[in-house]
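Researcher: Quick test of sequence recovery. Tokens follow.
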């Protein structure tokens, strides 16, 4: 199948929400060796979960289907430029190629704004009106890290 066909499948996923109102009009598919191994569409409203974006759902679906957390040999096709959370998830999944249809500006034009998150990150997370980050009780939380570091059977991912 062609890249255009996989993008059409992502677009089809995005259009599901026009009927169901499960979330915004976003869809994604993940492909491995010309076969769709994961798909998803935005389900934020249905699941009452702000992380249920199309890309996250597709990653979860692909990982479950392939029984792995490493999608390094996969490509994602998404109907819109991924938000910062989804970009991070794509990187964590080791996906190296992400095709997108609509731009972040296109999403902003229909009411989905990611710019304030990008601005927060670019400002080194110092804008307390967006989020206050406060370190607390490191002497307690570091203990698990120290024990993990000593483990001989640990897996780094």
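Model:
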């Amino acid at each position: 199948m062609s890249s255009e066909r996989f993008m059409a499948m992502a677009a089809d996923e995005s259009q599901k929400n026009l009927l169901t109102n499960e979330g915004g009009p976003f869809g994604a598919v993940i492909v491995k060796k010309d076969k769709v191994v994961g798909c998803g569409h935005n389900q934020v409203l249905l699941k009452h979960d702000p992380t249920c974006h199309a890309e996250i759902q597709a990653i979860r679906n692909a990982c479950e289907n392939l029984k792995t957390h490493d999608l390094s040999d996969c490509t994602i096709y998404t109907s819109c430029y991924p938000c910062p959370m989804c970009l991070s998830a794509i990187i964590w999944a080791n996906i190296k190629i992400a095709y997108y249809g609509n731009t972040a500006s296109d999403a902003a034009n229909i009411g989905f704004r990611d710019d304030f998150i990008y601005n927060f990150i670019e400002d080194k997370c110092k804008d307390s009106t967006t989020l206050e980050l406060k370190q607390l009780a490191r002497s307690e939380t570091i203990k698990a890290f120290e024990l993990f570091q000593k483990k001989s059977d640990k897996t780094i991912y």
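The radius of gyration is 18 Å.
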